[in-house]
User: Fold this.
Amino acid sequence: MVVSSAVAACSPDTPAPSTRGSASSSGPTTGAPAASAAGGRCSPVGTTACFCDDGLASGTQFCDANGALTQCVCKLAAPTATGSLAAPSGAGSRAPSAPGPAALCRALQDKSGCMAQSYESSELPASILFVLDRSGSMACNPPPTQDSAACEANAVPVDPAQPSKWQITVRALEAVFDSLLSKKSTAQIGLSFFSNDNTCGVNSVPSVPLGAVTDAHVASLKTVLDSTIPSGGTPLVGATTLGYAYLHQEASAAAGCSEPCGAPGNRYLVLITDGTDSCPTPMRAQDAAECNAAGSCTNFLVKKEAPLAAQANIKTYVIGAPGSEPARGYLSELAFVGGTPRTPTCTHDPTSAAGDCHFDMTTTGDFAAGLATALGNVSGAALGCEFAVPKTGGPVTPGSVNVQYRPQSGNAECFSYDPAACSAGSNGWQFAKKPDGSDDLSRVVICGSACERVRADPMARVDVILGCETINLQ
Assistant:
């Protein structure tokens, strides 16, 4: 999709120029009608400037004796790739911005005194590393075929004709990868396992490194999944910590720099496990020292590593498979400090068996259906349509932000502000969240079917408009 944003200022004493037409040098075209000044009328009579796609007040419009403002007239631009969104390596490139006028949505045209100036923006990229528990207990059947206590006593399936927790997880992940491929996702995805040596081994480099969602990359992910069998212990802390380090390195490499700088965008670690860490001895001496200082390696993860990752915009989603009942409180705490609590008031106490901040599959009677739903929610939240708010040199006023969608054909449409979580059914736009749960005014997220509509249109444009009172169409 083509993405752009707009910054607006309110001027009650002058007629408001249009959002933009299109700038260039080939022949005139008619831009969008602008919102009138206060009271719905413009003044004084005469010609005034209006903004075009060059980001400048290079167009003209006329205020007549009746106080009516004509459309903005700009010069037609030759097609260029200036407004196109660069695709990640390996993905198909996006189509360039189409020339022509760009109108404010009808709801914003009714707002008085709004002047818009266009700025090119880009959709923020996403990188997702799936960190998957392949310990021996994942070979068991899920409840009710085999309860978790029986699996812990003897980690073999009681009914080999029924799918194991591992087989169900593999199928669900492969379905997610196929879905991302069909939706032409611009994300980068990778896959890591723990353990990787049938005991307590972990790798600093994933089994499948991050890569663009292409046919070849998805085939590689599936090949590795299909050839892996459960065995060994559960080095959860080591795998998660190394996953954070890998995502940090990927961010720095993408930005062409070294720590602590990094490329813009969102990074996620999705942990799927059926228990807590069973390999308490870390591989490196410095890790042992930090674990000892925290009281244990499990404490070290939730007290230091996960919160630091969240501060660096690496969020941790946690899915607890059947078998993780005793670790429910700990996994809930990991999701909470990792920046992905399911609700602001969820329970999280690493010392108890109570917690609902993570995706808890131990409470569902159908692990396959529950996991599919959880992964759908995670991927939807992680890969939501997220866009940068234009930088204007001044503070952003939360009540003066709007987001509109301009399809390849048809009129511009404003999305409603909807603060409900994307995973909870939001269908509109909202601000992204900081690790502490407060609004991040530098980013907006489009959720639900609104996001699907934008992604389905390769020539769609999204405008983030500042300066006009936020509209809520619900």
